[in-house]
Design a protein that fits this description.
The structure is a homodimer of 216-residue chains. Chain A is mostly helical and 216 residues long. Chain A has 2 domains: 52 residues, Arc Repressor Mutant, subunit A (Orthogonal Bundle); 142 residues, Orthogonal Bundle (Tetracycline Repressor, domain 2). The first copy, chain A, is built from 13 helices and no strands. In chain A, 38% of the residues are buried. At the A-B interface, α8, α9, α10, α12 and α13 of A face α8, α9 and α12 of B. Chain A binds a DNA duplex (30 and 30 nucleotides) through α3.
Chain lengths: 216, 216
DNA sequence: AACGGCTTCCGAACGATGTTCGGTCACCCA
DNA sequence: TGGGTGACCGAACATCGTTCGGAAGCCGTT
């Protein structure tokens, strides 16, 4: 068949199609052959634009991370900065829950993530947190977000809930909330974040450096 | 070759070997063929004792979860109960970091996890927490543990750190702590847990039911 | 205007994976 | 003593990610 008059593929189109498949049918359903079929093309053609399957997934991951906001450190105090970072981080993952298991493999290595980690660290230090605390707070917040995205209630319980309800009395009430799993997810995350920040606020008063004086 | 005089395989031996492989060489290195080779046996023989590869991994996961302790609710107040649960949960995962990505796929569905979720929920309600808060606190704590286990297992930063150090000034100090990554992980988790519990303690005073009166 | 090289897609193949199926033979109970 | 069940083997299947040689449209050069 040879070269087509107008290019069919591009790195962007491939990654977009990959994300669509993952969003719709899950990470396990993404294969290079499926991807090619979806794009009306043969498998080997993909490798002209993309190095490996992992390459595709990494690009998709980076794209998703672009939506994470760290600008809150400029428009408010450190608490507002952390909170808005955490919420937009979680929102970005929640928008594509199926890819989270892949994301979690090495988020720190990703370019976009690193840029944000730097901003967070800087924002915290600027607010008087000792550098070591800044590191810990950044990591802790990430734990919350990743943990929330990974073990979200929504994926936890599936259809055959009845079995458990009978066997574990204390959980019966909790299970009745199924279907509203998304709400529990959000509320749990919010509770964890607020309690964490409450605790940090008290700690900040004890360990933070005094604000920089105005002039020399 | 036919039937051997003494059985070579058993479900237990297979799962133990699987865990050994995963611990030593990672989740990606676990294949049925490798597993068979390690046990001095042919691949198809495994399927006499085990339904699928996922079956093996699930059994391994359950085994690991057995080490999680929820007895803290009987030996102390709710705060002690949550803290000791969270710590033993994290310790169990940290003992086998390579399997965490698999674990995180559906921990709530697992038998052992459910039994513990029930105990935690009961312990919290018994301490006066409204049932809904008990659910949220259980989920939040799990977020912390899973998130901590996930993003620490990933190794976060790897060898070619130099690149990032130059590019992201605020992270330079944080990177110098590499090699002590394990310490940062533990400290971050402890900080998050303590701050979270501090926040909850204040909340408990506002929303908890009064303790049950002694007699009628 | 003809040609040569680069780009882009195709077809077939490779090795590895999870799983299945029919065969073989030792053990144990009748 | 014989037959059935249990435990291992060998070969095969479909699927996966990836590679490689070939075909053919496009563009710049001569």
């Amino acid at each position: 068949m040879g070269r087509p008059t107008k290019p069919i593929l591009s790195r962007g189109r491939i990654c977009a199609a990959a994300l669509a498949i993952v969003d719709q049918d899950g990470l396990a359903e993404l294969s290079m052959r499926r991807l090619a079929r979806e794009l009306g093309v043969q498998v080997s053609s993909l490798y002209e634009h993309v190095k490996t399957k992992d390459d595709v997934l990494n690009e998709v991951a980076n794209t998703i991370m672009e939506d994470v906001e760290v600008s809150g450190f400029e428009t408010g105090d450190w608490r507002h900065g952390v909170a808005s970072w955490a919420r937009s981080y979680r929102a970005a993952l929640a928008a594509h829950p199926q890819i989270v298991p892949f994301l979690a493999y090495g988020p720190a290595r990703r370019e976009a993530s690193l840029r944000r980690a730097d901003a967070v660290h800087g924002g915290l230090v600027g607010a008087g947190w000792p550098p070591r605390y800044a590191t810990l707070i950044g990591a802790s917040t990430k734990y919350l977000v990743i943990g929330s995205a990974m073990s979200s209630f929504a994926g936890g319980f599936d259809d055959d809930v009845q079995v458990y309800v009978e066997r574990y009395p204390h959980l019966a009430g909790a299970h009745r909330l199924r279907g509203r799993a998304g709400v529990i997810d959000r509320d749990s995350f919010e509770l964890a974040l607020e309690m964490f920040l409450d605790g940090l606020t008290a700690l900040h008063a004890r360990v933070a450096a005094p604000p920089e004086p105005a002039g020399p």
